[in-house]
Amino acid sequence: MPLPNLPYRFTKDQRKGIVALCLLIIIVQAGYFILNAFDFSSQAQKSEAEKQWLAHQSQIDALKVQQTGNEYKRYPFNPNYISDYKGYTLGMSVKEIDRLKAFRESGKFVNSKEEFQKITGMPDSILKSISPYFKFPDWVNKKQPAQHYASAEKQKNIYPEKKESVKPVLDINTAVEEDLVNVYGIGPAFAKKILRRRADLGAFVSMEQMDDFKEFSPEALAGLKKSFTVGSHPQVVTINVNTASLQQLARFPYFNRDIAKAIITERSMMGKIANFDELIKINDIFNYKSKIIRLYLDF
């Protein structure tokens, strides 16, 4: 089937011309890259250039050696704050650096080159080369030679520490959430847990009960015991061991469902639990917290 006559269809001669033009462009581009890739300078020219560079190489090496041999430029510094690296660059030995550090750790300062040599034991030759760069505060240079920086202990006596105001100790059984969150480590969630436990018990009978909150950090527990106390005659809610139901016993904070079932079983077998000593036989928890638990129980 013959192809239709397209408006942009080229003739045979036109197609040949297009192909020849593309080949010509490719050849020109290839020649350009080849000419740039190769250096067609003569070997004689190269050798002459190398000879000129080599002739100046000795001068270049001499300049490098001269530059390397230049002395490190020093700047004024306070000898009280010499680091290990700084001491090494100054030519100090390890023992001299350690003596200076021990003197500084005592809270004292070096105020003259003579005192620096006395403390470090530095030889005169090294001290002579570095002492011109010692820079002390202006007030040290203006004061009498016999005076020295005040030690840390003296400064402490001159400027006594500010006494913190002692906060009153609050009753844990009357504290509100705003009081509890003032303790470091106690946020609103932990404060609500304390208030819910107090509502279940009626009142806390000892600050040792804060240890029941295992999720509290040691800092939070210490802060609670420092900021709060148990007032006189806390109004606790007691539970009668012989008349309480299984649900009531299980809801008691120091019991669980297993302990509640054991109490019901013991009560049904014996008829009545007479005292706290009989409860001790049921579960070890009564031995562990007997002083606290017995205050919440009736028989």
UniProtKB/TrEMBL annotation:
Protein name: Competence protein ComEA
InterPro entries: Endo/Exo/Phosphatase_dom_1, RuvA_2-like
UniProt KW keywords: Membrane, Transmembrane, Transmembrane helix
Lineage: Bacteria, Pseudomonadati, Bacteroidota, Flavobacteriia, Flavobacteriales
Keyword Cell membrane in annotation: no
Transmembrane parts of this sequence: 18-38
A Pfam family that the UniProt record links to this protein: HHH_3
